[in-house]
Design brief:
By secondary structure, the protein is α/β, with parallel strands linked by helices. It has helices spanning 2-16, 89-102, 161-173, 194-202, 213-221, 246-270; strands at 23-27, 39-45, 63-69, 72-78, 106-115, 125-133, 178-185, 207-209, 226-235. The radius of gyration is 17 Å and the shape is globular. It is an enzyme of class 2 (transferase).
Length: 271
């Protein structure tokens, strides 16, 4: 794995020259429009990058975008990777490791998720302050490379408290309905049953999704502060669940995305 990380990093550097990103951004389902705010300098398709996994979802573009956002050099993943696509955890988190090698010092993550908390409604935002990992595997399983991080990384602060508070302050200032909460990560790809939603709420979850946590584990392993936002696209706390389609989820995400983008941009500008 280490050889592949260095090889991929070297290839990307050969394509982007002396551009060294400060902030990495991972854009979730229906949330790729933030790229429109970036003054793009380089674009690389995942399919053209050696060793880089390719997103198999039709609503994920599969591009690395390099450019300026609010005066900062950023690299954005327009389309993330998921365990349910058939990739292993090392493949899913490979881009995070490469972005760290390219120079990023912080990482911003977004996702679409289902609300478990009756106070958190469809279309609201939730800044993640902690998580529960119910994925089937861990990206750190196997041989540890000290060059990447310690064998047993601390997870007492998986999401930067400073960035969480700044994000909440920005949301309040702009009258954006935004909560902080606990994100539960499951394998997917099926959505949850009523009993599963109830269980996830009982164990302490405020929202549930199928991503984010593997990348956050690896970010912590490599010493990268994390800021993450969920757009709540459906509600799993009702006695009778309404059927939900991916198309419904994407529509809600697209409507709420400008608010998420505003928080991302103002937070990045403040750094």
């Amino acid at each position: 794995m280490l050889k592949e990380i260095y090889s991929t990093t070297a290839y990307i550097k050969s394509r982007i020259g002396d551009f060294e990103p400060e902030i990495g951004i991972i854009l979730g389902t229906g949330l790729g429009a933030l790229v429109n705010e970036i003054e793009i300098q380089h674009k690389l398709m995942y399919s053209n990058i050696p060793n880089f996994p390719i997103s198999t979802l039709e609503f994920h573009s599969g591009r690395l975008i390099f450019g300026m956002l609010e005066g900062k050099k950023v690299v954005a993943m327009q389309g993330r990777l998921h365990y349910y696509e058939g990739y292993d955890m090392q493949q899913i988190t490979f881009p995070v490791r490469v972005m760290k090698m390219l120079g990023i010092t912080k990482i911003f993550v977004s996702n679409a998720s289902g609300s478990l908390n009756p106070d958190f409604k469809t279309g609201d935002l939730m800044i993640i302050e902690d998580h529960i990992n119910l994925q089937h595997d861990n990206p750190l399983r196997g041989r540890n490379f000290e060059e990447l991080g310690p064998r047993f990384p601390d997870m007492s602060q998986p999401y930067s408290r400073d960035l969480v508070q700044k994000g909440l302050d920005i949301a309040a200032k702009n009258n954006i309905r935004c909560h902080k909460g606990v994100y539960v990560s499951v394998a997917g790809p099926n959505l949850e049953t009523k009993a599963e939603y109830r269980y996830l709420r009982i164990i302490g979850g405020d929202a549930v999704g199928m991503s984010t946590v593997p990348e956050v584990i690896v970010a912590n392993h490599m010493g990268l502060p994390v800021f993450a936002i969920s757009i709540l696209t459906d509600e799993g706390f009702h006695d009778v669940l309404e059927p939900v389609s991916v198309e419904d989820i994407i529509k809600v995400a697209e409507v709420a995305e400008p608010q998420m983008t505003k928080i991302f941009k103002e937070l990045i500008a403040s750094l």
